[in-house]
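Annotated sample (chain length 90).
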Amino acid sequence: MHQMHACDRYEAFEKQYPFLCTASVKANSIKRYPSQVLDLLYLGDWGHAQDQERLDEIKVRRIITVGTGNNHSRHTSTPGAAAMPQYAQS
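Output written by the structure step:
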């Protein structure tokens, strides 16, 4: 049985329904993954940290976010957030 790649499926859909395919739809139809740096270490952006389905696929269980200023809401949930200790901001 021939398995179609995600890009092939999108292109087939786009041919049939071009009026539904905008640049934002196409961008959202492609799976994005963080870059693997070491066996157990990945580097990604905030979008990667919020994509639970992709994190489950590569078995990511903990996330460390690094940034300056107040980039993300304190109420935004990430995988394992409930299990990780909360530290006061300095």
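Annotation: The longest strand covers residues 35-38.
Annotation: Strands lie at 35-38, 41-43.
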